[in-house]
Amino acid sequence: QKLGAAELLGGLQTTGSLRNRVAGGYKRMLGIRRGQPAFNPGSSQAVLRLHPSVFALRRGDGAGSIAALVNVSGEAAEVELPFAGTDLLTGEEMAGTYTLRPWQYCWVKA
Fold it and tell me: Using CA atoms, how far apart are residues 75 and 71, in angstroms rounded to an integer?
């Protein structure tokens, strides 16, 4: 959808609108990302093969590692997490086998 500047700004500034909620979510994620050394462009990175429907990367090494998981399907996907940790986006403690809901994503910090 092509929007004029005024319509776009109005949507972003309207509390509770879809554009406002999406922009707020991205700002929150960027703030979390900014505070994590594992997301530094120079950090080590490895692709994790956890499930055919899950795109997964390990960023960083050791105690500050983060596993970024994205279920790219409309089906639930059960994965064996590479380490126990906390989802930075929800605060949920995660370990062992975990089932990602359809389209779910998480950033698990060791």
Answer: 8
pLDDT-derived band at 15, boundaries 50, 70, 90:
very high
41 — alpha (psi -120 to 50), left (phi > 0) or beta?
Answer: alpha
Q: Which residues pair with 93 in a beta bridge?
A: 86
Which of 37, 30, 79 is closest to 59 using CA atoms? 37
**pTM over the 0.70 mark:** yes
Contact in structure between 32 and 59 (CB atoms under 8 Å): no
In the sheet where 66-71 sits, what is the strand order? 45-51, 54-59, 66-71, 105-109, 85-87, 93-94
Residue 99 has what pLDDT?
97
